[in-house]
Amino acid sequence: MRIGIIGGTGIYDMQGDALEVETRYGAVTVTRVEHDDRELFFLPRHGATHGIPPHRINHHANIRALASCGATHVLAVSTVGSMRQGVQPGGLVVPGDFIDFTGIATFYDDAPVHVDMTEPFCPETRQLLLDAASSEGSVSEGVYITTAGPRFETPAEIAMLQEHGDVVGMTLGPEATLAREAGICYASLCVVSNMAAGLQTGLTADEIASIYEEMRDVAVGILLRTASALPEKRNCTCSMAATRGSL
User: What is the pTM of this model?
Assistant: First the structure.
């Protein structure tokens, strides 16, 4: 069984064999890791040295590279800002839905193909991720708002977004959409690194960094436990979500 792991801020490497994967969208370096009886293919979303800003991430190449490696599932981890006082820095969130303000993300620029997002995340994969995260203590669920970045949101923007979501970040929407178009089961673990603008003052970049460094091993452990728990046979419809036709 082959599983993709996408690492976010603070998770840049895993020990294994580096592979260069060519795609029509560009080349991607992934690391092949053996874990239990599974093959994991680790990909750092921001590059190995965190050199790629969120608005320049090549999501198309990343997802296509993992699909080319034979990954049927993708487990992603990212850091987010919380828009709820009940979800503080250091907390864990497994989103159940998302809103994407980053623009159009699709592999289908030349054909009328529509992808079903009634369940934005693979229900089976998401539940196993939620179970694994719960073993670390309290974990929240909610709606992830995706903004374009690279700047953080203004207090006015957060006040508006609070009406619709719980956490805010810059990467999940395109990633989840393209994974669904590729027929890959996708779920995401979010580590809260800060409160969103207007909800907290005085938190420095170093303090934010210390939170995701502190949570790194916890997050990796959750991903590995989830990978071990995934069944060989998929019990979902993620692989059949894309439908050709005209609306």
Answer: 0.94
